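Folding Task

Wanted — backbone structure
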Amino acid sequence: MSRDLKSRVSTWLLWAAVVALTTVPLVWVGHGPVDEQGTAGELFQGADSRAQDAITRIAPDYKPWFSPVLEPSSNEIASLLFALQAAVGAGVIGYWLGLSKARARADADADAGAGADPDRPS
């Protein structure tokens, strides 16, 4: 097998793995978690609402200390905002990593070029 063919095969296998890791959980989990009454809950219900339900069962007279600044209209919107926050964070981390690598490469190139003859064109 040539090197180019191996590279193409590994690329296709990686893409197949990404597609499988994305679709299998969606097919596998077809409904939300079942509550005490036996009805299926919301699929996108987060840990916040579960914790709120547990607190109300334990201490029904509990009053929250503060209210949220922005209340999403649905759980899907809350999931979207969470995903957007994660994407922005990943973008910032990726930018920082790329910038650090580029600076390190530029420093290495500058150090390698420091010993060269300045009168000789490169």
Summary: The helical segments are 3-28, 47-58, 75-114. The mean pLDDT is 83.
